Amino acid sequence: MRVTARLDAPLSRWLWLVKWLLVLPHAVVLAFLWVAFVVLSVVAFFAILISGRYPPAIFEFNVGVLRWSWRVGYYAYGALGTDRYPPFTLREVPDYPATLEIAYPEHLSRGLVLVKWWLLALPHYLVIAFFMGGGTYVAYQSGTWTTQTDPDGVWSIAGGLIGLLAFFAAIALLFTGRYPRGVFDLLLGMHRWVLRVAAYAGLMTDAYPPFRLDMGGSEPGALAVTDGATAPTGPQVSSTPPEPPQHREWTAGRIVTVVIGSVLLVGGIGTAAGGTALLVADQAGRDAEGFLGTPTRQFTSSGYALVFDPVELRDDAGTVGLGSVLGDLRVLVAGQDPDGVFVGIGPAADVDRYLGAVEWERLVDITDEGRAVQQRIPGAEPATPPAQQPFWAASAAGPGEQQLVWRAADGRWSVVVMNADATRPVIADLSAAVTAPALRWVWIGLFIGAGLALLVGALLIAVAVPRRVTR
């Protein structure tokens, strides 16, 4: 592996203030390229496991993504080492101040591919975590740590030691117009470390990354760094790595097709996972009566009623009844009042009129910690018991556990829990459940969509990846 970088002086004192805006197009493109990188790395994983060879076209693509990322990171807040805008290409640009080359491996270990990207690279990930701060690394800085554990990391801001040193360099540029050479050398050493780990974890080499920074200067046979017109001294090796077998080029159309195929594959896998979760809930999460429900929990109201936030159900399509989609709602309530408990569901407007002058509490939310958030409404005691009201669509009242079953219908509805004799406080154990007959069709649809996405994505990648040139 060979990394070169040239401090492209003189550098603008002010341009770094807006580079975050200038690199946004690259960030968007790289976000999609890294999706393709991960998908193609999985393909390469199985190819290496079976044949011991990294598919040459995929190797060229993945090296190109690393190369593109390194150029953007060097231009932006990974180093601020040049003001020359990075090109939109996977190919090597020899005259750009930052370059990266990785020699194509003729053979890779079938055994190492199983462990090197996670187990063997783990010590390096810990070092990178120190460099990056919290272990995150933006994709345009070629950080495998982010791409393997946080695909959205491309939007993160560079942090840790690299970000801090780049900030110091920016301040020095602002006030002196000069880039501190020591900071530059240290930054390049850390980037080399990260790029080596990226290549190793990306299955591109079996050579274990060394635990060293290699700041400035050159490392014979591995990497070199040049500074402007000053040629490095000492033993040198050819800068041209072995070429992979010849194949058709990665054109813009092929790259876009691979990216689309990779996004479809990732989306298909996510959709299949969602369908599996719904399948398990539909088949294993139902009780003996076919309901999917919440666990029982206790609710308390210091007022005369506990009202759950209204739910609005609308059948805008008008072709399939809400009852066929949502099914039946079941509410089980057990109160602590000796005269029994009342539970009812009715139109929200009628409930508001009945409780207009009554002291009651509304359940607004349940926090992630399971704490009920309630809003107290001041007022007096009810004029009549709740069971005497004619507007309830469904209700149940009496001592012991009460069960309410209601067929979902269009409208805005409120669930009310009170003591049967309209006294206070209200203390009740409650659980809710639905039959949701349409859930089966949801997971079936997700599986069909996932299958189509996976099929189309695989075909797009298979068609787009360049084939070897036959002579």
Automatic annotation (TrEMBL):
<feature type="transmembrane region" description="Helical">
    <location>
        <begin position="20"/>
        <end position="50"/>
    </location>
</feature>
<keyword id="KW-0812">Transmembrane</keyword>
<feature type="transmembrane region" description="Helical">
    <location>
        <begin position="255"/>
        <end position="281"/>
    </location>
</feature>
<dbReference type="InterPro" id="IPR025498">
    <property type="entry name" value="DUF4389"/>
</dbReference>
<keyword id="KW-0472">Membrane</keyword>
<feature type="region of interest" description="Disordered">
    <location>
        <begin position="224"/>
        <end position="247"/>
    </location>
</feature>
<protein>
    <submittedName>
        <fullName>Uncharacterized protein DUF4389</fullName>
    </submittedName>
</protein>
<feature type="transmembrane region" description="Helical">
    <location>
        <begin position="117"/>
        <end position="140"/>
    </location>
</feature>
<feature type="transmembrane region" description="Helical">
    <location>
        <begin position="441"/>
        <end position="465"/>
    </location>
</feature>
<feature type="transmembrane region" description="Helical">
    <location>
        <begin position="155"/>
        <end position="175"/>
    </location>
</feature>
<dbReference type="Pfam" id="PF14333">
    <property type="entry name" value="DUF4389"/>
</dbReference>
<keyword id="KW-1133">Transmembrane helix</keyword>
